[in-house]
Amino acid sequence: MKWIVVLSMIVVAGTVLTGIILLKQPALSQKGRLKKYLMANLVTYAPLLVGTLVFLMPEVSYALEEPTSASGLGYIAAALSTGMATIGAGYAVGAVGSSALGAVSEDPKILGKTLIYVGLAEGIAIYGLIISILILGEL
Description:
This protein is mainly alpha-helical and 139 residues long. The chain contains 4 helices and no strands. The two termini are 29 Å apart.
């Protein structure tokens, strides 16, 4: 288990160092190098992720057998519902907000309509928060 964590840390450090090296080099042929480094990191990181899941699955299934440890999965579910909803909301607000800004710059009268669309996009995060509150209420 410890070697998987060490290998994952090496991959993360390699990714950071690759980014620093690419920032120092000129922009010529940088796109090809970036693709090559990204593929190398993915080829290394994907088996580490699968190995981590394979080695941790027995511990998770063992935790499900104990009645006191099962609440940990509820906390994970609450965190995932909030985290994934906020990621989706960030993506939606980014897309809608930039489009709304462009539309308002052309016609300032539609500001109210665009604010409604941005508010609807922000509602995605609120739905995830409500779901996580409901999950935490059941624990």
